[in-house]
Structure formats: structure tokens, C-alpha cells
Amino acid sequence: MAELMGRDGTWTFDGEVIRIVPGSERGVHKLRQYLGEFTVPLAAVAKIAYEPARKGGRLRLRLRDGADPLLQVTSGSLPDDASPYQVTVDPGRADVAEYFVDTVRQALTLEQIPDGPTDRYLLPGPPVPLTAAGVDGIATFDGERVHLEWRWNTSETKRRWGPRDFTLTGLEAVEWQAPSGLESGYLRFRLYGAAEQPAPERDPNSLELWGFKKESGTTALLAAAVAVRLPHPSAGPPQARTAGLPQTDTAEILAAAAATAPPAALAPPTGSAPTGSAPTGNAPTGNAPTGKAPAATAPAATASAADDDHDALLRRLRELGELRRDGILTEEEFTSTKAAILARFHPAG
């Protein structure tokens, strides 16, 4: 048994796992505190080292590539102080740190643990449910479904799509990119069969990220929680688990197009008599029977409604073109959806 206590956390090794407990003091990065206590199995460890310094030093753990979903999705781009795999060694505790390192190294040798990459995750990932905020929206994940809600400042393209929901069976991968300089980062959920991805501020499957401590820290944890439930990227190309998944977004567009134009504007009202026909029944002169418009006003009303609905459908076509331009729809999806929308201009019969 080996234990090292520092200002920003405590590490304990029992021969099988390293238990990492982050500190609760103000200087400890929020991501480490949000992640909380967790264990690292010996099989996930590649190396451990003590880095001495004038004021104590640092104990650093390096995991095997592919073992940890958090490191996998962040691709080594976490800020150094946000990494949960390092702990500060207080002055006067160097001997304890060196003993801890020797104990872990001896166990790695005895168990013949390889230091090469692994094709499966060896850590369970952050606990769920999780909520994470980006610049233009909020993501939640309950272990089975991702939900995106947009903020007031989101782009018009995203606002048109409305809230988004993704099941794990519809996701091919999750991508996370930290903000860098003047470039914003993103949390992106990549769907099966998706075309080239647009910029995060226009992608309805992404949150835009800006800054790290205040806005983006928990998005990395949410990305890891999703990633650990998807096929490991080193396990070979994943197979689509549900046929036709790329058509999910097209169906949403078709539904939106159908809701845009009231059917009454696209076909004559049922029960209306043809122009010039005499009214039936014994209705008083000057009053139209129920379901029929007065002959003098019906053409103008119908033309006005048709103009409004044609304008709405034209707007939908423009939006559809933007989605193709941004790479959200494939050419095939764009063509089939456009045909369905145009059919509403010229209904059968």
C-alpha cells in the first residue's frame, strides 16, 4: 500500500488500482473537481514518474493510448492544470513520491503490463447524468440520449433546427476541440453518414466553445461519457447499428416543410362548388352555405393564402440549400427533400 497526499489531491495504490481523489481547495482546476474520485486499473498504466522541482515537484501518470475516454476525446489538449493524472508533491515529501513511483513500477513489471495502446477503454468514464454549457447552447446526457438546447445567441441556422436529440445508436463519434487563441472550440456529435461538417457556429449537431475554465470544462467530461459508450476508435470501423440513420435529419426537414404550408392553400377546399355553379340547398340569398366562401371573395382569399404559402415554401427551399452548402445534407438527401417540397407547389390532381 502506497499513499501520497498533496495540496491538490491524494493518490493511493493498493497493488491493483490507483485511486485518485482531487483536492477541494480553490486552486484545483474545476474539471478535476467535477470528475471527482475515480480509480485507474494497473492494466491502464503505461508509465509513472516523479518530476522533482525546487518547491517539491510533481507526480505524473501516463496511461496507455486508448485506455481513457477522456484522454481519447481531448487528444492531449487539456490544459496541464486540468489533467487529473498529475498531483503536486509538497516540499519534504519527495521520498514519499519516489516510494509511490517505485511501488507502481514494480507492480507493472510483475504483472507484465504492456505500455502500448489498447483497443478498448479500460476506464469507465465520467458518471452520468451530465450537463455542460457552451457559448451557444447546453448539452445534457443521461447515459442513453444526448439533448441540445440553444441559447438566445445561437446562429439562425441552428435556431431553425430547434432542440436536438441523439440516441447512441445514431452516433458514429463524438468530437471535442479546445478553444485556441482566437479560434473557438467545439463539442460535436457526428451522426452516421453525415457529410463534411460545417463550422461549429452553423452546425446543429455541435456546441461552440470559448474559454475553458468558465464555459468548456464540463463539455470534455460529457464528450468522454458519450465516447465510452460508443465503439472504440481502435476496434475497427464501426458498423451502423440501425439502417437508414442518415435519413433522420431529412425526415425532420420534411416534417418542417409539411408544417410550413397549410394543406388548404394547396388544394381546393372540400365541399366547395366550382366557380360559376349555383349554390345548392335553400340558403338565403347572400349567405354562403357552411364550408363555402362567398363567390365574390373566394378567389382573392385563395390567391392571398397561396402567395403566403408559396413564400413560406420558397424560404424552406433556401434553408435547404444552406444545409447542403454547409455539408449537413448530402446531395442525395438534398435532392429527395427538395422534390418533396416542390411537390407541395404542384399537388397531384
UniProtKB/TrEMBL annotation:
**Compositional bias per record (Low complexity), positions renumbered to this chain:** 259-275, 283-305
- Top-rank taxon of the source lineage equals Bacteria
Q: Which residues form the DUF4429 domain?
A: 11-105, 139-226
Identify the stretch(es) annotated as Disordered: 259-307
InterPro entries reported for this sequence: DUF4429
Q: Which residues form the signal peptide?
A: none
Record's protein name: DUF4429 domain-containing protein
Say which species the protein is native to: Streptomyces sioyaensis
Q: What is the lineage of its organism?
A: Bacteria, Bacillati, Actinomycetota, Actinomycetes, Kitasatosporales
